[in-house]
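Exercise 7b. Backbone tokens:
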């Protein structure tokens, strides 16, 4: 069992670094449940392997798989990707894994949320609920369980005291019933070593068990700068939802009192319009690797314009685009299946 904190991470001087800070490695997990992925499972596994290989060209990658599947995962991903055998239910390590923390003296630690299967949408999650603890025990890192039911995709941090999250997820009664906004905010800051929470309305839509994770809507690019999903499809009710999120960003200031610069990035609504059944159509759902950005493609007209915007937002990084349609059918994208461990 990992060591426990006597105080909260913030009280102990820890913080969650921004994703653009240097990584020791990237953690992923292997999709293996036929009852969840159906006949698309082989294609989904190939897509996960492509993402792992792309990230491995920038930084080390370790992929968690159940003991019965670890040999297959290693063979599918190739010699450039390490594997670790741990019991898991499914493959969304952003949501089930720990939030890694650092301190100025070089100490490392982690926070973890109480994972309840995305608000009870997937009750068979006993093994995933223990992934963060088991991974920290493997790494020898002290761990604190936050007093929140939540997932890692629900937050974005700037590494300088500011958290971005959504009301639709963090304040949903299927996660934190009876907790006030102020109580949730306080616990987020204590868990991640932050000072301020910026709240977006988020998004509640049929088929989205995340209840509007922020990593499908907006993310920090650097302190004071946010990349935000937008939509110009005139027939979509989602346009109004995304405008409300943008208005919340326009009104907000970060932990240093700065007004936010907002870079707009249109989502892949053209892919959704084709009727292919993709639930995740977010270009913001990318992973920042050491010197790179690994971002989604949907074989849609918006793929190349989205790439150009991301390249301008991260001019010092190489942008790699991966077709994620066989991941998107499960409700997430590249950010949802990855978790960075700070250097």
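Sequence design result:
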């Amino acid at each position: 069992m990992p060591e426990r904190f006597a105080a909260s991470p913030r009280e102990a001087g820890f913080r969650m670094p921004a994703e653009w800070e240097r990584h020791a490695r990237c953690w992923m997990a292997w999709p293996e449940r036929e009852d969840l992925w159906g006949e698309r499972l082989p294609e989904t596994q190939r897509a996960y392997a492509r993402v792992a290989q792309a990230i491995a060209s920038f930084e080390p990658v370790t992929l968690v798989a159940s003991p019965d599947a670890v040999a297959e995962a290693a063979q599918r991903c190739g010699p450039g990707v390490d594997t670790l055998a741990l019991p898991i239910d499914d493959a969304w390590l952003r949501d089930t894994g720990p939030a890694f923390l650092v301190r100025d003296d070089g100490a490392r630690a982690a926070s973890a949320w109480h994972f309840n299967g995305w608000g009870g949408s997937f009750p068979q999650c006993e093994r995933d609920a223990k992934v963060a603890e088991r991974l920290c025990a493997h790494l020898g890192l002290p761990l604190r369980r936050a007093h929140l039911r939540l997932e890692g995709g629900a937050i974005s941090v700037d590494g300088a005291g500011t958290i971005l999250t959504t009301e639709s997820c963090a304040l949903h009664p299927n996660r934190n019933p009876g907790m006030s906004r102020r109580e949730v905010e306080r616990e987020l800051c204590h868990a991640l070593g932050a000072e301020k929470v910026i709240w977006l309305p988020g998004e509640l839509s049929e088929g989205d068990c995340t209840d509007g994770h922020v990593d499908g809507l907006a993310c920090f690019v650097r302190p004071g700068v946010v990349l935000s999903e937008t939509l110009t499809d005139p027939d979509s009710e989602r346009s109004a939802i995304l405008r409300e999120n943008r208005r919340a960003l326009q009104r907000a200031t970060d932990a240093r009192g700065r007004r936010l610069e907002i870079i707009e990035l249109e989502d892949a609504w053209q892919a959704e319009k084709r009727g292919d059944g993709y639930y995740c159509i977010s270009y913001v759902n990318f992973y920042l690797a050491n010197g790179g950005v690994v971002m989604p493609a949907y074989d849609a007209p918006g793929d190349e314009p989205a790439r150009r915007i991301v390249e301008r937002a991260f001019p010092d990084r190489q942008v790699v685009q991966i077709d994620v349609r066989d991941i998107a059918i499960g409700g997430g994208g590249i950010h949802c299946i990855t978790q960075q461990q700070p250097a």
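Instructor comment: The chain is about 30% helix and 25% strand. The mean pLDDT is 94.
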